[in-house]
Design goal:
The complex is a heterodimer of chains A (332) and B (351).
Chain A: H1 2-9, H2 19-29, E1 35-38, E2 44-48, E3 52-61, E4 66-72, E5 78-83, E6 95-98, E7 102-108, E8 123-126, H3 132-136, E9 144-147, E10 152-153, E11 157-160, H4 163-178, E12 184-191, H5 199-208, E13 212-219, E14 239-243, H6 251-263, E15 269-272, H7 279-284, E16 291-298, E17 307-310, H8 311-326
Parallel strand pairs in A: 3-12, 3-13, 13-16, 14-15
Antiparallel strand pairs in A: 1-2, 2-12, 4-5, 4-9, 6-7, 6-9, 7-8, 10-11, 11-17, 14-16
Helix pairs in contact in A: 1-4, 4-8
Chain B: H1 3-13, H2 22-32, E1 38-41, E2 47-51, E3 60-66, E4 71-77, E5 83-88, E6 100-104, E7 108-114, H3 123-126, E8 136-138, H4 143-149, E9 155-158, E10 163-164, E11 169-172, H5 175-190, E12 199-205, H6 213-222, E13 226-234, E14 252-256, H7 262-274, E15 279-283, H8 291-296, E16 304-311, E17 319-322, H9 323-339, H10 342-347
Parallel strand pairs in B: 3-12, 3-13, 13-16, 14-15
Antiparallel strand pairs in B: 1-2, 2-12, 4-5, 4-9, 6-7, 6-9, 7-8, 10-11, 11-17, 14-16
Helix pairs in contact in B: 1-5, 5-9, 7-9
């Protein structure tokens, strides 16, 4: 599984620019599914036909947070804005990659003496160009960049950029390889543009019309030194979502996941996330409403270049989802 | 108490935090079924009660009042058994210390919200209002028992008995928007033996307080020709003038603003005048504040109106309203349904 994680996290795909990561996922799964297609927003939708004709949609977003060039000055320095939620503090000294191929480094303006005043206007990217013309050979206004960071295997835990939510993509891929024929028609959807407002899943769900929609994404943890209070910890099992800013998980869906975890003797945690949203929110409000919930993989340092997850949590999430797809669901 | 006050008391005292509306749903179904022909639910749990009109393929009108209420949710259980919590919807955290609460765990548990007393606070701490992060719920139980009976994600409501005040006023929790449910009931009572052409869908929506979510899906499913949201608005009180609020007991507040169709506004105002129903105009400009917004932008767009009950102390457990405004609003809406014809509905398509 670690090889697959490495492959996905080292791929390029800020929101709206998901072509490279989509092709990699597509190659990985196309022989394992009954149908695979891409919609107008770039969502990759893979279907595994089930025994019954109800529809389950699993959504993991393949886009990652990034930056977008909005000005190049005469000396070739690139100014930028964010794509999704990146704190400017994360970017001091960071390396980034434009278009999946051009590296750059970030620093702040020298006149900035108060670090509290750090914002996007005070930062620039240096791609090593000696002037504007040279910079423009490699970067055009509107080009996006991602963090530039290698995957690291730390043993039980791994660290990398974009585990949010490539680890969800890995979970979906491992789940679809795990199960033969699911109980219901199951759509494994690798969504786009989640980081800018759950846009991909919104249109994918509109088209699929699922009877049950589950997001598979990361969630924050509260187990670091002096962390903000949060009851989720790394390595304690998949987190079954109760609430975030985008969704109140349907109690039936939440309880089903809890029951499945208990029956299969899988560790689990319950997630009440005070900030942030997921694809579950957009799926729930599709058309006249969809039963929705989420399985979250605990992740430290979310939206930094060094996110961290525990492999046991990923494996247990795969087992939980496989159990879900293998069984009849009483309320469908 | 007269019957409708008694019903509002029950509605106010029943719990139904956004996303967890099971108990309040049972109550609402109970009171609406007598006056409607069919009740159904959608996937989010919206209660859709339909009263059929006399005309085949007559206009479809949707009333929406939300039955969910703001509340709290357990976010962490400390080793000693104290419960940490977050809010569901916009709870005013300054009003929470010292409240009695009900935790809806494996069973209903009574508790209180506590925080560090001023005596042991530093001078600096004392100057600031308590934040939710400083507070906890104490159930009075041993830690082991707490962990058996409470789970992360369990919801909590403030415990508050509904009271009648003088001058037809009442006070309680969750009158936002159980008052709206009572308006729908009053309209249905008025329409009981009255012939009307339109099919009337009275919808008790869910998850309004977390972003008008229930109205979003129920409107999509019903596809009404007209949607009317019934909610509460701020009432005047010391420090809140009539520029920002409507008068308690001053009549049904007819909303006017970007999410209200101008012809719907005029029509409701005309009906109020013709029938001598006391009303006031409530300019309303903030989007996403009520179900009217969600209804308006559904599918290809729905002509929408907003009727509000003036309410003081919004999002506290002492919300206060006048029963008179509920009665007037119910009557106004009933007259609207009675008069509604195809011609008016067609006219809404042209500005």
């Amino acid at each position: 599984m670690k090889n697959l994680i490495k492959k996905l996290v080292e791929s390029y795909g800020p929101s709206g620019d998901e072509e490279q990561i989509r092709e990699i996922i597509k190659a990985e799964i196309k022989d394992e599914v009954d149908n695979i297609e891409t919609d107008a927003l770039g969502n990759l939708i893979a279907l595994k036909e089930g025994k019954k004709d109800k529809k389950v949609m699993l959504a993991a977003h393949m886009d990652e947070i990034g930056l977008i060039a909005n000005h190049i000055d005469e000396d070739g320095f690139i100014r930028f804005d964010r794509v999704g939620g990146i704190s400017p503090y994360m970017l001091l000294g960071a390396r980034v990659l434009f278009n999946g191929e051009t590296p750059g480094v970030i620093d702040k303006e020298g006149q900035l003496d108060d670090i509290k005043k750090l914002n996007y206007d005070k930062l620039y990217i240096d791609i090593g160009a000696t002037n504007k013309e040279e910079a423009e050979e490699k970067v055009t206004l509107g080009d996006t960049a991602s963090y530039y960071r290698e995957f690291q295997d730390l043993g039980t835990r791994v660290t990398a950029k974009s585990l949010d939510d490539r680890i969800g993509c890995v979970t979906l891929i491992e789940t679809l390889k795990e199960i033969d024929t699911p109980e219901y028609d199951t759509y494994f959807v690798f969504t786009t543009q989640e980081e800018v407002g759950t846009r991909g899943s919104k249109v994918a769900a509109y088209n699929i019309e699922p009877d049950l929609g589950l997001a598979v994404d990361v969630t924050l943890t509260g187990d670091m030194p002096e962390a903000k209070r949060m009851s989720v910890s790394l390595g304690e099992g998949p987190a079954i979502k109760v609430k975030d800013r985008s969704v109140l998980a349907d109690p039936k869906v939440k309880n089903l996941l809890i029951d499945l975890a208990k029956e299969n003797e899988l560790p689990y945690q319950l997630e009440v996330l005070k900030y942030g949203g997921t694809d579950a929110g957009s799926m729930q409000l599709t058309k006249d409403g969809v039963l929705a919930g989420a399985v979250s993989i605990p992740c430290r340092y979310v939206h930094s270049p060094s996110e961290m997850v525990d492999i046991d949590d990923v494996e247990n999430s795969v087992k939980l989802l496989a159990a879900l797809l293998d069984n009849e669901i009483s309320f469908l | 108490m007269n019957d409708n006050v008694e019903i509002l008391k029950q509605l106010s005292e029943t719990n139904g935090v956004s996303g967890h509306e099971k108990n309040i749903t049972t109550q609402v179904e109970d009171i609406l079924k007598e006056y409607t022909d069919e009740i159904k639910y959608d996937n989010l749990g919206n209660l859709i009660a339909c009263k059929k009109g006399s005309e085949q393929d007559g206009p479809k009108v949707m009333f929406a009042a939300h039955m969910d209420e703001i509340g709290l949710m357990i976010s962490d259980i400390e080793d000693e058994g104290f419960l940490r919590f977050t809010s569901v919807g916009g709870v005013d955290q300054r009003t929470l210390v010292g409240q009695e609460v009900t935790v809806l765990g494996q069973e209903e548990l009574q508790g209180i919200i506590g925080a560090k007393p001023p005596h042991v606070q530093s001078a600096n701490e004392r100057r600031k209002a308590y934040k939710m992060d400083d507070m906890y719920i104490d159930l009075g139980l041993e830690a082991e028992e707490v962990k058996e009976k409470v789970r992360i994600g369990d919801v909590v409501t403030v415990k508050r008995e509904f009271e009648e005040l003088k001058n037809n006023r009442v006070t309680g929790k969750a009158l936002d928007d159980r008052a709206g449910i009572l308006v729908m009931l009053t309209a249905l009572q008025e329409l009981k033996n009255i012939d009307h052409k339109a099919d009337l869908y009275t919808v008790a929506t869910v998850q309004e307080e977390v972003g008008v979510r229930g109205a979003t899906t129920s409107t999509y499913g019903i596809v009404p020709d007209i949607g009317i949201a019934i909610d509460v608005c701020h009432g005047t009180m010391p420090g809140v003038s009539s520029e920002d609020a409507a008068e308690l007991g001053g009549g049904s507040a007819i909303g006017f603003g970007p999410h209200v169709h101008p012809k719907m506004f005029s029509k409701l105002k005309d009906i109020a005048e013709k029938n001598e129903i006391k009303y006031q105009v409530e300019p309303s400009h903030t989007p996403r504040g009520t179900d009217a917004f969600a209804i308006q932008v559904t599918r290809a767009g729905i002509p929408t109106a907003l009727i509000s009950i003036p309410l003081r102390y919004m999002h506290t457990s002492v919300e206060t309203i006048s029963m008179k405004d509920i009665k007037r609003s119910g009557k106004l809406l009933a007259r609207f349904i009675r008069e509604l014809n195809d011609e008016f509905v067609e006219g809404l398509q042209c500005f």
